[in-house]
Structure formats: C-alpha cells, structure tokens
C-alpha cells in the first residue's frame, strides 16, 4: 500500500500554502494539440503518449477516495479492485475511442497468447465515460475507463486509439497471482558510499506449494522504486537456490545493485490560481492559459536530509475554487527554473507528470544571462512531485542525485515482481508480488 499518512501530510502542507476569461484553443496560441503526434504510430509496449492532444494520463488501482490515483496499476488475479484509466484530450469534441489489451512477457514484448486465452470478451472496448470540461480557458474532454477483468496473470499493455486506428496512448498494467511467497528485508550496506546514499533491499522467494521447474533459469525477478519503470532493476537469476528449503535467495554484493535513496521529491501546488500555493512564485491571470512561475530552485546535493512530505513522484489534480477536478481543473503553463551557475549538460524535469521520459518536452534550456536552466510544461491544476536530473551526454542515463543528493533516510516504496514461464507455456506469468515501504513514517 502507498504511504497514506505521508501523502496526507503532503496534501495538508500544500493546503496551507495556498472571473475567468473565455476559452481560447491552444492552437490559436501557436501550440499544436489535436492530431499532432510525438512519433510514428508504432506501438511501444511502455507508458507513452503518441498524440500531443492527450494530457494528464493516470492509470491506477481504484481503491476509492481521492488518493486512489496515487496507487499503482497493479491488481491481484481476483481483481477485487479495478484498474482505472483517466486522461484528457485538449481542443477536441467527444470522440469514440477504443481500448484493447495486449498480454506481454516479462521483458514487455508481446506474448504468444491469443485474445481468448486471457480475456472472456472481444478485445475491443469503447470508452463511454466521457465529460466535457466546464468553465476552463483551455477546453478539453475527460475520459475514464475501467479495465476489463483478465483470466491469467502477467504484464499487460492497455492501448487507446481513435475508432479507425490512430493510436493515442499506451499504459502498463500488472496482474499478479501469489503462487509463491515473496519476503523482502533490509539488506546489508555495501561500502561507505552505499551506506550513506543507497537503500539495500534483499528478498527471498518461497515456492513450497508451487512446483518450479529449473528456477535458476526460468524465474525472473524485477524491483521498482516508487513504481517507476525507467530505472527498474532486473534480476535474471537468483544469487542462491536452496532446493532443500524450496527457496530462492536474492542478495546483492555491489552498491550498484541497490537503489539510490535520493531525496524527498520537490513539490508545488497549483490547485488554486487565485492564491499562491506551495512552491509558486507568481501567477499571471491575464495570460491564456494562466501562466504560473515556480520559485527559483538550486541543487540540494550535499545538503542534510530534509523530511519533507511527498507523494513519491506522482500528482493529484484539483481545483480549489470550483471543486470538481475532473472537469473544472484548468490547464496552465508552469515555468521551472534551476539556478546552477555554469552550464552542466542536459537537464530534465522528472516525475509522473513527464512519465519519467527524457524527451524534448521535459528537457530544460540553459539561460546564459541568468545562469539557470529553465523549462516550461503545460499542466492541469494539481499537486505535483518532481526531480531535476542531469544527463551528461547523449545515450547516458539521467542522474537525479546530481541535483537532489541521496540519503539512506529517504522514504521510498519498493515493489518486487516474480515472473515464471511454466513448461509448455508461451507466456511469462506474474506468480509473486510484494511491496515494501522503506523508512515508512
């Protein structure tokens, strides 16, 4: 489960820090939306938006209540709680959109299963829960979809397209069946650097009641931090196989095998555009869309750990003036500024709001005169978490610790995924799942 107490504290803090113009379509302001694509219409089996008119995508386990959107898109095979998908489409009237599911292997390539092997229904679902925005300067249509039940565990990719084929978005979903037991624990720190900055998590897989054939080769494990896919760690085989105990041991001996703890996320709150919320320096109500400038920020590397409440990099949409965040929350330009002195390399805004992608939209530009990196995103009103990350050169991974620092004491959520392909099967099944809260408060 998410750290609900920590998240509630974050929203409480944001709450303390707290006559619209006519709607003007964004394309009239030089911003392309409906119909423009970010890439070719080739399906990629990951969290991705293919059309720039699609915004504010959230895929989550529907546990009820406003904080449910912060839950991961992970459910048990019984599916007592549904997976829900919500998103907006800017500057377009209601259209018939179609969703479908694709079963994938552990490496997110399509499995060899046909639709009838994992679904009871025809694999084409029209999205019928559709609402127009109300009293917003940027018009949009809000879509909501309940993902249908499936028959087997594993990785699934949910695809949404226009009727007729134009692909709009894809989202990853996990359906697990606890055929094995996963027990996670705090591991041993590795070296001085690992002790201060990394969070060692180790785990065992017990298969007493489920026969695994050749587990050293056929079982694959994965661990995520805060439900992110961009930096997930993959373990193709266990460190030890204890046949006599029917147990697989995953222990790690190098610092690189443990996640950096990083810091609590930076936050801002734009749920009110009449009062400056958490992290906001200036609001320009005359601009259309409304223009929000965040407070100038600096690197936190080398600073002492600060126990700030956060939502593990995710976001919650809302409108404090009108209340109905689904259709009353407006879109605003949000300006980010990171003071660095000299130019460092490529700097990106990372978080759920950018799908953790390193692309042109999330990249900041260096202002030589101000000696700062600046970025701008079109975002729905809400409470947001984010990091700044440095990519020293093309092709290299982005390093959030460069600007954020890293601490053992940071509160993070880890989940462990256990995959297995039974003999004679054509697909990897998700046979075990466990979540561990690190430094839960």
UniProtKB/TrEMBL annotation:
PROSITE patterns assigned: PROKAR_LIPOPROTEIN
Any one Pfam family match given in the protein's UniProt record, by short name: T9SS_plug_1st
Annotated ranges, domain Type 9 secretion system plug protein N-terminal: 54-177
Keyword set, alphabetical order: Signal
Position of the signal peptide: 1-21
Taxonomic superkingdom: Bacteria
UniProt-recorded name of the protein: DUF5103 domain-containing protein
Species this protein is from: Pontibacter amylolyticus
């Amino acid at each position: 489960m998410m750290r609900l107490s920590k998240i509630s504290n974050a929203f409480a803090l944001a709450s303390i820090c707290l006559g619209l113009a006519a709607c003007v379509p964004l394309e009239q302001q030089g911003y392309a939306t409906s119909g423009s694509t970010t890439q070719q219409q080739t399906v990629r089996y990951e969290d991705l938006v293919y059309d720039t008119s699609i915004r504010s995508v959230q895929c989550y386990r529907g546990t009820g209540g406003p904080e449910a959107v912060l839950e991961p898109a992970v459910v048990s095979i019984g599916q007592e709680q549904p997976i829900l998908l919500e998103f907006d489409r800017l500057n377009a009237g209601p259209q018939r959109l179609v969703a479908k599911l694709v079963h994938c292997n552990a490496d997110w390539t399509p499995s060899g299963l046909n639709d009838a092997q994992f679904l009871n229904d025809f694999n084409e679902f029209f999205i019928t829960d559709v609402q127009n925005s109300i009293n917003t300067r940027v018009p949009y249509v809000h879509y909501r979809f309940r993902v249908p039940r499936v028959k087997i565990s594993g990785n699934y990719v949910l695809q949404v397209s226009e009727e007729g084929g134009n692909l709009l978005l894809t989202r990853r979903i996990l359906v697990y069946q606890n055929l094995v037991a996963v027990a996670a624990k705090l591991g041993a720190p590795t070296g001085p650097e690992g002790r201060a900055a990394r969070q060692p998590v180790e785990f065992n897989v017990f298969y007493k009641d489920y026969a695994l054939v050749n587990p050293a080769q056929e079982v694959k494990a994965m661990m995520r931090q805060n439900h992110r896919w961009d930096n997930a760690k993959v373990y193709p085989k266990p460190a030890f196989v204890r046949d006599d105990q029917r147990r697989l041991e995953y222990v790690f001996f190098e610092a690189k095998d443990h996640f950096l703890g990083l810091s609590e996320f930076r936050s801002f709150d734009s749920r009110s555009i009449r009062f400056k919320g958490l992290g906001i320096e200036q609001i320009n109500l005359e601009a259309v869309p409304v223009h929000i400038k965040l407070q100038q920020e600096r690197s936190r590397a080398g600073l002492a750990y600060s126990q700030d409440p956060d939502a593990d990099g995710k976001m919650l949409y809302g409108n404090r003036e009108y209340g109905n965040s689904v259709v009353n929350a407006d879109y605003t330009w949000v300006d980010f500024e990171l003071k660095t002195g000299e130019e460092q390399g490529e700097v990106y805004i990372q978080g759920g709001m950018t799908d953790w992608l390193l692309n042109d939209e999330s990249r900041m530009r260096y202002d030589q005169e101000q000696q700062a990196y600046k970025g701008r995103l079109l975002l729905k009103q809400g409470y947001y978490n984010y990091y700044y990350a440095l990519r020293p050169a093309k092709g290299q991974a982005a390093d959030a610790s460069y600007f954020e620092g890293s601490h053992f004491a940071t509160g993070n959520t880890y989940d462990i995924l256990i995959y297995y392909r039974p003999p004679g099967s054509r697909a990897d099944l998700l046979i075990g799942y466990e979540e561990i809260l690190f430094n839960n408060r």
